[in-house]
Design a protein that fits this description.
Structural class: alpha/beta
Radius of gyration: 28 Å
Largest sheet: 4 strands, antiparallel
Helix content: 40-55%
Shape: globular
Number of strands: 13
Oligomer: single chain
Length: about 575
RNA sequence: GCGCGCGUAGCUCAACUGGAUAGAGCGUUGGCCUCCGGAGCCAAAGGUUGUGGGUUCAACUCCCGCCGCGCGCACCA
């Protein structure tokens, strides 16, 4: 159990001792949101007092008289309307930290009941460039996967790429009639994108082109060898792009079962839904209706179009069935943008109708739109979006210039490596920092900022710690485990460590890595305050030893936390 | 029209899910010692949380009505 949790439970038990018949909410002791009031607080006595028709401050005083928490806390204080504020004793804090130094878990606890969780994220389309619109799903999903894994869960990541669908009709027409082989060799994605756009706009003025595309699509779906061959080549070229990008981002998937993987499962699925009376014919299409649900009353989900083709809902239901059978997950998490909320409501409702006995929890983790400078959403179709590879290049280039200014003596390969880690880190952090449900205004400067609340600030704090350890004259190895916390900066830093586990729990529960960003930024801030006010190497004996331990713990938590955001650290920058 | 979501400092965003004096970054202004890395630190200015009611010890947070914005509403994914 994490030290924080342990203390929390101790204090709760102590309050419970005094109020044996109160309900569990009334004895709750929680970490205090603002350290200036204390480290833990009880704020439920006010409502308890009301229920018992007592004066809340009087009740608090009565509780206080009998309350004994002297082993862990200083004198408990009553404040405001009837808050109890607990302040941790330094000895208790020392003890909590020492247990970590001696090899205990890093202020968090792993799940007592590990879950199997499937995470569906990123999901780029074949034959299109990955652009900034993909980063939220990609970073969010990856970060959640990392956090869940650290907490002991079994995580399966599945990249549900768009490798099937009507766009291939147009792509096939383009490929057969207008392909520029040289351009394809040079930059396959751009050439395929060009082909798609060209045929798309030709189709706007000439219906014959659309008809042609439709026929090519029918041939592909019918298994025409030539079209299948072209289709496979397009996928292979796209996969190369995906691999490049994901490798730069340090992101790996356990599986990449694209939409096409489910092709031969679609017809049997619809047959089954019809047979079980879950879906029925409507206006020539096959649809699932949700009469009982006021929200989905007039919003049927189509699982077969009137022309006999299948669509998004069909594939998603087939995918769901496959995942249930293949991995028996406790939970499936879909990370997509907020515009798909209705779609996932339909899928989830259909799932409950179809497999009412299933215990699997489905979660749609959605995020806001990415907007341009004009405040309008990015257009994925008509272009003018920033390519992800260009964004990464720009980040590394800008960072390289700064590294070269600050640290000209380092050899170029080292500067390149630092620029890579810091540049990519800045992008990931900028993306993960805002609340995921807020819309997102894209700006180069914000994305690539290296000052303020950014990844480089955290990486810089880490690098400064490493620098201290490089300068340590005698490499005594482990600085020991004994702490003497004295200054306010030391104590504030030490107390903040305890919040790490709590933060990880909320990240996973709320699917919000930005909680971790906030925690890490505060950690780096508290470390910097400590660094400014408490000399480490110039201190003597036990003080120096104790401060070295704080440095080491800060470095470990920073590194671990950043790793959960998919961000690396460097020893020098 | 119906549904979902949003509205917080000049700008970009937080606020631990109902707690105490609403906090950061950017930008602006003014400081930082021969001292472990200045990608840093300290300080100042900046707010009727869109608006009007309600609920209660307590509301950015929950409920209702307006105003404004975004997204979604049957054969795209």
């Amino acid at each position: 159990m994490s030290p924080h949790k342990q203390i929390e439970l101790q204090l709760q038990a102590a309050v419970r001792e005094v109020l044996p018949e109160a309900d569990s909410a009334a004895v709750l002791v929680r970490p205090c949101p603002d350290p200036k009031f204390g480290d833990y607080q009880s704020n439920a006595l006010m409502s308890l007092a009301r229920a018992r028709k007592l004066n809340p401050r009087q009740l608090a005083e009565d509780v206080l008289k009998k309350l004994d928490v002297s082993t862990t806390c200083e004198k408990v204080e009553i404040a405001g309307a009837g808050f109890l504020n607990f302040r941790l004793k330094i000895s208790a804090l020392n003890q909590a930290l020492e247990s970590v130094v001696k090899g205990g878990p890093l202020f968090f606890e792993t799940a007592s009941r590990p879950k199997t969780v499937v995470i569906d994220f990123s999901s780029p389309n074949v034959a299109k460039p990955m652009h900034v619109g993909h980063i939220r799903s990609t970073f969010l999903g990856d970060s959640l996967a990392r956090a869940l894994r650290l907490l002991g869960h079994r995580v399966i990541t599945d990249n549900h790429i768009g490798d099937w669908g009507t766009q291939f009709g147009k792509l096939l027409v383009g490929w057969k009639k207008y392909l520029d082989a040289g351009a394809l060799r040079k930059d396959p994605i751009s050439e395929m994108e060009r082909l798609y756009r060209f045929v798309n706009s030709a189709g706007e003025s000439d219906p014959a082109v659309l008809e042609e595309a439709r026929l090519e699509l029918v041939k592909l779906q019918g298994g025409d060898p030539e079209n299948l061959g072209i289709w496979r080549e397009m996928i292979a070229l796209s996969e190369k792009q995906f691999d490049d990008i994901y490798s730069r981002l340090g992101i790996k998937f356990d599986f990449t079962y694209g939409e096409s993987f489910y092709n031969d499962r679609l017809k049997p699925l619809v047959d089954e839904l019809l047979e079980k009376d879950i879906a029925r014919e409507s206006e020539g299409a096959i649809a699932i209706f949700f009469e009982g649900d006021p929200q989905l009353k007039d919003k049927p989900a189509l699982v077969r179009k009137s022309d006999g083709g299948f669509n998004y809902s069909t594939t998603d239901l087939a995918t769901l069935a496959f995942r249930l059978a293949e991995w028996r997950p406790d939970e499936i998490i879909y990370v997509t943008d907020g515009r798909q909320q209705l779609h996932f409501q339909q899928i989830f409702s259909a799932f409950r109708k179809w497999l009412p006995a299933s215990k699997t929890r489905l979660a749609h983790v959605w995020f806001g739109a990415i907007l341009g400078d004009d405040g309008k959403p990015f257009k994925t179709r008509s272009g003018d979006t920033v390519k992800l590879s260009d964004l990464l290049d720009e980040a590394e280039e800008r960072t390289f210039k700064i590294v070269s200014e600050k640290n000209p003596s380092l050899p170029e390969p080292a500067r390149r490596e630092i620029a890579r880690v810091v540049g990519i880190g800045a992008i990931k952090y900028a993306d993960l920092l805002p609340n995921r449900q807020s819309d997102y205004v894209f700006s180069w400067d914000k994305m690539l900022a290296l000052n303020g609340n950014t990844a480089p600030y955290l990486q810089y704090a880490y690098a400064r710690i490493r620098s201290i350890f490089r300068k340590l004259d005698q490499p005594t190895g482990h600085p020991g485990s004994s702490l003497t916390l004295a200054t306010p900066e030391e104590i504030a830093l030490a107390k903040h460590f305890l919040n790490f586990g709590l933060t990880l729990d909320s990240v996973v529960e709320e699917y919000r890595p930005n909680f971790l960003c906030i925690f890490l930024y505060e950690l780096a801030g508290k470390f910097t305050a400590f660094y400014e006010n408490c000399p480490v190497l110039k201190a003597d004996g036990q003080t120096r030893n104790s401060r070295l331990i704080l440095c080491e713990l800060t470095a470990r938590v920073l590194k671990q936390g950043l790793e959960l955001l998919g961000i690396e650290v460097v020893d020098q920058m």
